[in-house]
Amino acid sequence: MSTQAPVAPAPVEGAAPATTTFEPVIIGFTCNWCSYRAADLAGTARTKYPPNVRLIRLMCSGRLDPTFVLKAFSEGADAVLVSGCHPGECHYIEQNYKALRRFQLLQRTIEALGIEPARLQLVWASAAEGVRLANEIARVTEEVRAIGPLNWPAGDIVDLDAVDLSAAWEATGGDADGPPEAPGGVNPDHAAGSLPAAASQPAAATQPAEASR
Amino acid sequence: MTAEHSHLPAENEIRIGVYVCHCGSNIAGVVDVAEVARWAAENLKDQGVVVARDYKFMCSSPGQELVTDDIKNFGLNRIVVAACSPHLHENTFRTATARGGLNPYLCELVSIREQDSWVHTDKAAATVKAKAILAGGVERVRRNEPLSPVRVDINPATLVVGGGIAGISATLELADAGFKVYLVEKDPSIGGHMAQFDKTFPTLDCSACILTPKMVAAGTHPNVELLTWSEVEKVEGYVGNFTVTVRKKARYVNEDLCNGCGVCQEKCPKKVIDEVFEAGLGYRKAIYTPFDQAVPRTPVIDRPNCTYFEKGTCKACEKFCETNAIDFNQEDSIVTLEVGNIIMATGYDLFDARKMTQYGYGRLPNVFTSLEFERLSNSAGPTNGHVVLRDGVTEPKSVAIVHCVGSRDKNHNNYCSAICCMQSLKFAHLIKEHTEATIYDFYIDMRTAGKGYDEFYQRILEEGGIFVRGKPAEITDVARTPEEEGKLILSVEDTLIGQQRRFPVDMVILSSGLEPRADAKELAVRFGISCSFDGWAIEKHPKLDPVATMTEGVFVAGCVSGPKDIPASVAQGAAAAARVLGRIQQKVMSLEPIKATVHAEHCSGCRICNTMCPYNAISFDDALGVSSINAAMCQGCGTCVAACPAGAISGTGFSDEQVLAQIEGLLMVGADGAPLRRSAFPVAHHEAVEEAVRA
Fold first, then answer.
1. What is the mean pLDDT of residues B604-623?
2. Phi, psi dihedrals of residue B523, rounded to the nearest 5°
3. What is the Cα–Cα distance from B357 to B171, expressed in whole angstroms?
4. Cβ B636–A59 below 8 Å, yes or no?
5. Which of B2, B676, B685 has its CB closest to that of A76?
6. With an 8 Å Cβ cutoff, are A209 and B682 in contact?
7. What whole-number distance in Å separates Cα of residue B366 and Cα of residue B505?
8. Please, how many CA atoms are within 13 Å of residue B179, restricted to the half-sphere of its CB?
C-alpha cells in the first residue's frame, strides 16, 4: 500500500484561504448525457474554472426534484446551478422543458422565501460544450461572489414533527444581527458583514414552516 | 494513508471502504490525496467509513485487489472510489466490488479528476473540493441498494441509415456474417457522394469501379433489404428492441415489376436540371435513376416535374413500359422495422460556397465548387470528362484551386475538413491529365497525413503545379491591366514572400469543406444521440470508442461524426458492424437498472406523472385507481419521480434518498474546508423524510 508523500503540500485543516474574497459554495445539478459529459470534457481539455462548484449527476435535468434545490440551500449552498441539454436536444425527448418549468417556479419560490433569484441559475450545455460550461460556472461564481453569502438564519436539523414553532421563531429569526452558532461553528464568511434581504426579513424564513404545518 | 477499525460488522451496519486514487500525478499533482484519505477516515467514521486508503493507480490490478481484499478482511458492504469520471471506470470498480462478493451497485465512483484536479490550480481549494465530493459519494453510497441489471434480448436484425460507402461497408459486413440488415437511403440509389467522384486519392482508383461492385453486392445480398427513396421517421424502443418507422416515398414505379430496362427514361419527354447528382451541371429526365450504375435499377418519377402530374396527360413512360411497372396512383407507404441495433451513416453536406460572397460563386460563371468539378472531370459526367468552362466548350488555359473554402475559417467552420487538401491535389492532377492548363493551388497549410498521401503531394509538385501559400481575399472579374481582361482575378497575400499578388485565371475551383447534414440536429434527436454545436454526432469516446454513441444500440460510421476520407469511412462502417455483431453474438445484454417504479400504496391516483413520460410508459389502472410504470418502456430519466407530489415513485439508482444524502455530503465542508453552517430552512433531512414516509 502506498504511503507516498503527496506532491502538493498538505493544507492546514480548516485554514481560511489567504484571500479575503468571499468564496461561495455552489451545487450544480448536471444531466448524465450532456452537462456531466461537458464537465468531463472540460476536465479532459484541462479547461480551468473556479473550484466553488460541486456537481451532482442526475440522469436528466427532468429528474430535478424542487426539493433538491431547497435542500441544497438549506444545507448551506450559496447558489444552485441547474444544467441540462439545450432545448430540443434532450436525451429523453423533451424532459428538459419540464426542468425549465420547474426552474421558473423555483425561482419565484425562492424569491418569495427571500433568496435572490440569481442564486438559482439554469445553464444549457451540450456534451460538446466543456468550455461553455466552464465559462458559465465562472460567471455564476462571480455573480454569487458579488451577492455575498446566503445568510439564512442558522439552525440545527429541523424535525418537522417535533418542531416547537415559537421556540423555532426565537432560535432562528429572533435575532437578525447575531444568529446562534450552528453545530460545528459558524463559517466566518457567513457571519461577517451585513445580512442580505433574507435574514433581514426573518418572518419569511419561518412562515413557510408554519404554513406547511 | 490508512485507517482501519477492524471488527465484525453488526447486523445492518453500514461499513464503507474509501479509496482515493492518485492517478499518477493526474490527481495527486493537485489534490493532496493522502490528506483526503486521512480526513475521510477521521471525519466520515459516523457515516460508516471503516477503511480509507489512497493508492497510486486504483484501476490497476493491485488497486482493484485492495477493494476485493478489504471487502473480505473488513466486512465492507459499501465501496466509494474517488478517481476519474464514472463514464470511464465505473464498470471497473463495480466489477472489482462484485469480485469481492458484493452487489456491484453498492459501489460509487466519484470524480476528483475531471471535476477537480484537472480543472483547478489552487491545490488547497482542490483538496477541500475533493473532500466534499468524496463525502457526497459516502453519503450517497449509504443509500445504495443491491440491484440486478436488466437483461434484454438482442434482435439480430440491424438498421443501417445511409447508403454511402460507410453504410454499404457496415451493411456488407453484417450481411456476410449471416444477419439481416435493412439499409435505408433517402435518395433513389445507394452510393452516396462516392458515386459522384471520378477518381479517388491517392491511388487514383476509378471511384465507380471500386464502388459499384459493393453497391451490387449490397443490392443483391439475400440478407439485405434495401429501402431506397425512404426516410426514417421515428425510432422507438431501446437497444436490442428498436421499432423503427420508415417512410417509403412513392416512386410511382412498382419495384416488383420493374426490370430496370431504362426505356422509360429514354422516352420521357421532360428534361430537368439534375441539382443533386450532377450538381446542377447536367440534365436528367422526370423519370430517372440518378446514374447508370444505380442500385436499385428501379427509377423514380420526380412528381413536381412530371408532365402527367402537372397537366394530366403524357404517360409516355407507362406506354413504353413492357412490364407495366408504372403506377401513377402509388402513395407513400409506412414500413415498421424491428431491429436490435442501428448504425447511422448519414454522411455530410458540402459547404455552400455562396456564403463566401467574395469568391463570387453563383455570380461569376467560371467559379466552380469541388463537387461540380468532380462531375466535370468524370468520364460519365455531363461533359464526358472534358474539363471546360461554363460555356461547355472552352478549355481553360489556367485554373486556380482554392483550399479551405468554409473550413478553418472563423466566419464559417473552425475545423479542418480533412479531405480538401488531398481532393485539391487530385484535381490538380486531373486538370493536368485532361488539359494543358497552368494550375495554381492556394492553400493555408498542406495537410497530407495518410498512407501514400504525402507521396501524392510530392508527385503533384513534380507534375508542375504552382503552389501559393495564402488564402485569396477576393475573386473578381474587374480587370486592372489588359492581361487581366476577361479573366477571373484572385487577389491574395502570398505569405511566403510577404506580398500582395493578383493571379488572372480562366477557371476557379473552390475546394468546399464538409458540413454536417442540414437536418443533423433533428436526426440526432430522432435517434436519441448527441451532436456537437456544429452538428457532428458525438462518439462515446473520440479515441477508444469512435463508432459507439452514448445511446446503447446506436452506432455511427463515416462523416456523420466528422469529416473523413473514404478509407476511414470504410473502416468505421466495418468497425460499427463489428460492434453490432458482438451484441448479436451475446444474444442477451445487461442494461443499467435505472428505472422508475410506482409504490401503489402511496399513489393517490392524481395522474400527474401520466403526462410526464415521453415514452408513454406510465399507465393508469382505472380499477385500482393508481398509476403503474412499464419497466421495459421506462428509459429512466426520472422526471416522473421528481413530479410525483406524493413521493410515490422511486427512481432506482437515483432515488430521492441518494440525491438528498449526496447533497448533504457535498455540503459537509465549506470552500475553506471548515464545516458548513446549516440553515434552519424548513427542508427536512433525509432521516426525517424517511421517518415521515414510514409514519
1. 90
2. -60, -45
3. 41
4. yes
5. B676
6. yes
7. 10
8. 26
CA distance B112 to B81: 10
| pLDDT (0 to 100) of residue B682 | 52
What pLDDT, on a 0 to 100 scale, did the predictor assign at position A186?
39
Domain locations in chain A as residue ranges:
22-153
Q: What is the pLDDT of residue A113?
A: 86
Q: pLDDT tens digits for B235-287?
A: 988 899 999 999 999 999 999 999 999 999 999 999 999 999 999 999 999 99
Measured between its terminal Cα atoms, the distance across chain A in Å is: 54
- Beta carbons within 8 Å of B513's beta carbon, 6+ residues apart: B350, B351, B404, B405, B406, B407, B412, B413, B415, B417, B420, B563
Q: Could you give the CA distance from residue B265 to residue B248 in angstroms, rounded to a whole number?
A: 22
* CATH top-level class of A22-153: alpha beta
Per the CB < 8 A criterion, the answer to whether B389 and B507 are in contact is: yes
Of A13, A51, A154, the CB nearest to B120: A51
Residues of B in contact with A155 (CB under 8 A): 678-681
Q: Which residues contact A38 (CB under 8 A, 6 or more apart)?
A: A30, A83, A125, A126, A127, A128, A129, A130, A132, A133
pTM flag (> 0.90):
no
Q: Summarize pLDDT for A136-154 with one digit per residue, the tens.
A: 999 999 999 999 998 776 6
What strands, in cross-sheet order, belong to the sheet with B341-344?
Answer: B224-227, B181-184, B158-161, B341-344, B554-556
Q: For B204-247, write each residue's pLDDT tens digit.
A: 999 999 999 999 999 999 999 999 999 999 998 889 999 999 99
- Three-state SS for B246? strand
Best interface-test mutation with B: which of A124, A158, A210 has the largest number of B CBs within 10 A?
A158
DSSP 3-state of B469: strand
C-alpha distances (whole Å) from A125 to each of A171, B477, B532, B554, B573 are: 42, 46, 10, 22, 30
Which residue in the set B114, B128, B671 is minimally distant from A24, CB to CB?
B671
Place of cell 421563531: A169
Q: How far is A191 from chain B (nearest CA, A)?
A: 10
Which burial class, exposed, middle or buried, applies to A176 when counting CB atoms under 10 A from its CB (0-12, 13-18, 19+)?
middle
